[in-house]
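User: Okay, second chain of the day. Same drill as before: sequence in, structure tokens out.
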Amino acid sequence: MKDGFIKVAAGTPDVQVADCEFNASEIIKMVHEMEAEGAKVMVFPELCITAYTCGDLFWQENLLEEAKKQLFRIAEETKDVEALIFVGLPLEYKGKLYNVAAGLNHGEVLGFVPKIHIPNYNEFYEARYFTSGENVDGTVTVRTEDYGFCHMDELDDNDDVEFDLEAEIEALEEEGFEELEEVEDDPDYIDEDEEELMEQDIPISSNILFTCPDMPKLRIAAEICEDLWVLNPPSVAHAYHGANLIVNLSASDEVVGKDSYRRSLVSAQSARLLCGYIYATAGEGESTQDVVYGGHNLIAENGTILAESRRFVNGALYADLDIHRLENERRRMTTCRFAPDLAPEGQDVFYNEVYFNISRETTELTRKFDSRPFVPGVREERERRCDEILNIQAMGLKKRLAHIHCQNAVIGLSGGLDSTLALLVTVRAFDMLGMPREKITAVTMPCFGTTDRTYNNACQLSKCLGASLKEVNIREAVNLHFRDIGHDPEVHDVTYENGQARERTQILMDIANQSGGIVIGTGDLSELALGWATYNGDHMSMYAVNASVPKTLVRHLVRYYADTCEDAKLAEILLDILDTPVSPELLPPKDGVISQKTEDLVGPYELHDFFLYYMLRWTFPPKKIFRMAKIAFEGEYDDAAILKWLKTFYRRFFMQQFKRSCLPDGPKVGSVAVSPRGDLRMPSDACAKLWMKQIEELEV
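Assistant: Same drill. Structure tokens below.
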């Protein structure tokens, strides 16, 4: 389980109703298929050893005995499989019949988990046969020899071992044992030690946690079909007591629309419990006398469906669960009391802990990682998200303007993406307040690096949106400042660049004072994460509307506005701005073209946004982020480039925290933000050594 990943599987084997031997063979065959794919947790459907649709045949003694016999056969024939396997069968216990999930590992039956909620409505008649396992807590004693299964391997093939009975007796007598009585040559006689080996006490309880000593972060519990569909599923109590992976053995039939509801249930339960959820259900082969089963298997993690099978086709489904991600989220959410000693009153019941063993291996990942985690991949969802974010930004600014009775806003408009988005948001806020757009002052401040393209776009954009345009050329003021401080304007160093940024901020603040307005900040989340802002220059404003919008999302917000504004001229300008390289334009252009490209200096923003998301949102270490990035950006960036910019990200993130410690107010729009008053309470002088050391140990 390197980096917290473990491969799991949900399988729907072919079955024949009441043919336990056939069904067991199919289960065994599928187990080995799953083994070949590297699955370490394998889940099969409810009552899969007999088939779910046996009806009154569940009363037949020979069916129940055969099911038990085939259970131990499955255990025996999968004893070399490195996995925890869950199969379903009917089990008689103390004169009652229970619908149970059996956990198998290395040839042993570890425990039986009985179904609690027994449906008896519509097409379901389970209460005719099965008893609720709600209060069951005991052991099932099985004489394994009765089922042709006995773990006495250590006694096999020992014909060549010499055994001196007299010497053993003498040794025992020397230790104080009385002389051993001879045993009659009784064919029914069984030595007590041998009898213990032939008997197995298996726990049966709805409160069982399957844990692995070598993987203490992985804790598994089971529920069965209807248990998920009720008001208070058993998985809630399982989670309270530490389970972070729930398996569900199900036999859910298909009717129109039920698949969507089923998918929602699994997704919601995994989100509510911050857990992984494996749902395996019955499929083809079950009786179709009255209903049809579709084999709709699902694997979810914290609200996200990682894998979903095609319905009406039997087979196995795989996914890579991230257990560390779940644990990190539970640790972060302090209101989630997922530990036995923190369980609420009434939930603090005793849980049986059953141990299983699987070898620690590096999971070969098939899981895909979105290279743009801040940007929804589906167009409809992306457009909905963009409109929502624009509204959050505008509502934040609307409240601030109304609170301070401000009628004017001032924006430094460069013709770049960030200032364009800030102006679009400000226009929306003014429209919400019913204030005239001409009260928005867009200030263009050309200097040494300004190109005609960005200058013209800034001017045309303000005109199209109805804002007032004010031009202040800062070249002379900056040169005068250089003379005052004794700086050679031919030296294009950080002083040369930051002098321009601070001059622009001074002008914006003073114009805001003149008009009784506030300065709207334009910097985005990605720039703040990297510290790519001039301290007390573009770093400062009176309300920062873009402060929690990452650069990769800024582009989509502007494009969404272009696509929906219903103004051909405005859309044309916005599209040209989108096509302009990201640049602070602080160095002189070459042949009229931008010479300073931000991403050439600090690295691609899509990489930095990926690093930022998984570092802050999920608290992953650098080595795990690097592993995921190699998968996410395969074909876009080679491993050396990813590692290079990962180093840059961590170095700058720690070094530049002092800029984030004094940020102006701004609205949070997503799950990642760096406000010192909310999401990121990080010391400005925190040491990066631990993270940088791990990065230095990474190999390309």
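The two ends are 21 Å apart (CA to CA).

User: Thanks, on to the next one.
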